[in-house]
Design brief:
The protein is an alpha/beta fold. The chain contains nine helices and eight strands. An eight-stranded parallel β-sheet has the order 7-6-5-4-3-2-1-8. It binds pyridoxal-5'-phosphate.
């Protein structure tokens, strides 16, 4: 746990990088002739400590992305509203952390689906039917439905995660049959070494096709630190930014 001084330093560091990322997003929206309000930034805090999440929350960033259920749940517990603000020189997250929206963006094992559905705001990586049932069951007690994105494979390699484009409609139909889930749209991660613009263009086509039968599922989760401009050009509404905001990851969780 960092002390007060470290934390002050971290806060100014993150405020600077946040300003840079926000101006990249604004610039890309302008270049694409899009309204800035169409794009939400998710801060990807995987491998970063919970104190970074608290700092981001104080800076007004409430959408937090995590890859792993266990790591997300650990941070949530650390930041939880039950912890009194300012305890023992910690980050003192206080109530602002109660407003955080947790986005699960990494590959999800089906035995973690129920747990994720109990705390996440959204799951971006729904790529198979088996996950739908677990998420819906886990979301049964929620007040608001769990938001879900169908992750689409851009390279057709099932081992890398993502549904094949031709399977998206069936997954979407199954999600729509579950009142505990709310289908938001599609998500993808371009394969390493590929042309991201090409991948995002393909994802936009998948999104258009999905919207024929599911007009409300218009969200597109695409774009990371290196390629968010391309993603915004191709209609992204949620960019997932880690490294450009938080720097190189310094901590590893198992
Ligand atoms: C890690 C991760 C990100 C963030 O990537 P950066 O390059 O650090 O911005 C976005 N999306 C997914 C699915 C990730 O796993």
């Amino acid at each position: 746990m960092s002390d007060g001084c470290d934390n002050q330093h971290r806060q100014s560091e993150l405020a600077t990088s946040l300003g840079e990322v926000r101006s990249r997003i604004a610039g890309a929206c302008k270049a694409a002739g899009r309204d800035r309000g169409e794009v939400t930034m998710i801060a990807v805090t995987k491998n970063c400590p919970a104190s970074d999440v608290a700092v981001l929350a104080r800076l007004g960033v409430l959408d937090i992305g995590e890859s792993k259920e266990q790591e997300a749940r650990g941070k949530l517990a650390e930041l939880g509203p039950t912890e009194p603000a300012g305890t023992a020189g910690t980050a003192g997250p206080g109530s602002v952390c109660a407003d955080l929206r947790w986005h699960l963006i990494g590959r999800l094992q089906s035995n973690k689906a129920r747990s994720v559905a109990s705390f996440a705001h959204a799951v971006h990586s729904v790529d198979r039917l088996k996950l739908v049932r677990g998420l819906a069951d886990g979301a049964a007690e929620r007040e608001a439905p769990l938001e879900v994105f169908v992750q689409v494979s851009l390279d057709g390699d099932p081992d890398r995660g993502g549904a094949m484009a031709q399977d998206v409609a069936r997954l979407a139909d199954t999600i729509e049959q579950r009142p505990q889930l709310r289908l938001r749209g599609v998500m993808a991660v371009p394969p390493i070494g590929s042309d991201p613009a090409e991948g995002f263009a393909r994802l936009a086509e998948v999104s258009s096709r999905l919207q024929v039968d599911h007009p409300q599922a218009s969200a597109i989760s695409a774009g990371m630190s290196a390629d968010l401009e391309h993603a915004i050009t191709h209609g992204s509404t949620y960019v997932r930014v880690g490294t450009a905001l938080l720097g190189r990851r310094r901590q590893s969780f198992s």
